[in-house]
Design brief:
93 residues; 34% helix; elongated; 4 helices; mainly alpha; binds iron/sulfur cluster
């Protein structure tokens, strides 16, 4: 757990570096994996609920499957997403 001062210090580094992200407890994931994990977390930890999400105006909605719908079959699908890095974060800060 980080103190408020530690969080402020980490947030003050812009743009974030790999070293900073590791220090902050993040694991290396792709943007699509992060979106997928975020949507599952937003859905109470349920992949099925993320699939059924009806918030179609949400900016993440097109990507909640972990795939890239604008790239069709070439879109890489995030699987086996590790949610540890996103636990405790609020879906819409
Ligand atoms: S509301 Fe947005 S972030 Fe939450 S599950 Fe639906 S698409 Fe994902």
């Amino acid at each position: 757990m980080f103190t408020d001062a530690e969080k402020k210090s980490l947030a003050g580094v812009w743009p974030p570096t790999p070293e900073l992200l590791t220090k902050a407890g993040h694991e290396r994931v792709s943007p699509l994996e992060a979106i997928r994990a975020f949507c599952v977390e937003c859905s109470g930890g349920s992949p099925q609920e993320a699939r059924l999400c009806q918030a179609i105006s949400c900016q993440l909605w097109p990507f909640r499957s972990g795939g890239h719908p604008w790239h069709g079959a070439k879109g890489r699908r995030a699987t086996n997403v590790n949610l540890r890095g996103l636990r405790g974060q609020q879906p819409h800060p």
